[in-house]
Amino acid sequence: MNDHLYIALGLAAGGLPVLPLRKGKMPFGNCRRCAENACGGRPNMKTPGPCVCPQPCHGWAAATTDTHTIDSPTWARAWREAAAVAYHPGGAGLTVVDLDHAAAITWAHETLPATLTVASTRGEHWIYRGAMRSVNAVRPGVDIKSTMAYVRWLGPSTGSMAELPDAVRALAVRAPSTGRPMPQPVTVPAPAGGGECPHRTPAYLHRGIAMAEQRITEARNAIHATVYRTFLAVLSTHGRCGCLTDAHVARLFTAAQAKGESPRHCTDAWTNARTTLGL
Predict the structure, then answer these.
(1) CA 229, CA 225: separation in Å to the nearest integer?
(2) What is the pLDDT of residues 21-39, one digit of tens each?
(3) How much helix, strand and coil, in percent to the nearest 5, is found in the chain?
(4) How far apart are CA 266 and CA 272, in angstroms?
(5) Alpha-carbon torsion 256, 259, 264, 265, what sign?
(6) Where are the alpha helices (DSSP H) in 178-245?
């Protein structure tokens, strides 16, 4: 068996979504069927697309724990040509702090709690339990890889994994530049309701929103798809009457953004769900 395939199957069995990388540590390019988002959006996840392409050609979004897919004939050519194995940390509920040089490593030792560590080509990867949005260059030599990103598998690690600290989450919050205007707050779209509410009690709505928040919060992988399906479920039940308010929608958006979704992706998912239901 191909060494990369053997490693990938072992990682997938342990819960890490994996994908093959070609030379240059790059994912395999989109096939003709999926080129330029023709498959529905999955290559860059601007929209939650229902891509059914069997090829490993969607970058981080192709990462999977399905061993049958990984060891399938459609992935065989990619493994023959693969130069490395990568994984999607956010899909496993993890965050990798990528430290590119000695100065960055020194900063991490002085600033961050100790955690699972693996040596990289130029520095170290510090791996924490918990997902967040991925951001590059949060400080010199430091990248954050979690949701919507892939990380090359580097081999055995040392130490014990710690919970994702606030100090790492704070790195993704950048202060606005003094030379540019403050960004405007994102407007949370509310459904165009107004019809007669068929529900006997407000508790039905409150319970439904709480369950939707929980579904998003507890998602371990496929965050984009989970958010979209949850929005779709809420709108299918409450989107045609006047009971769903901006405050309810804001709760759903907050839960989604806590899992790494950007405000734009939340708005896109909400709009797509409304369009699907004809609202």
Answers:
(1) 6
(2) 998 888 887 777 776 556 6
(3) 40, 15, 45
(4) 10
(5) negative
(6) 202-217, 223-238
pLDDT tens digits along 166-213 = 999 988 875 444 444 433 333 445 444 555 556 656 677 777 888 888
Give the single-character DSSP code of 217. H
How far is Cα of residue 22 from the mean position of the Cα atoms in its chain?
A: 22
**Cα distance between the two ends of the chain:** 51
Give CA–CA dist 112/95, Å, rounded.
Answer: 13
Using alpha carbons only, give the angle 19, 87, 227 rounded to the nearest 5 degrees. 95
d(CA 46, CA 271): 12
DSSP letter (8 states) at residue 117: E
Question: Which residue has tokens 């590059």?
Answer: 136
Is the pTM higher than 0.70? The answer reads no
| Six token digits for residue 82 | 């693969």
Residue with tokens 């030792």: 109
| Under 8 Å between Cβ of 98 and 128 | no
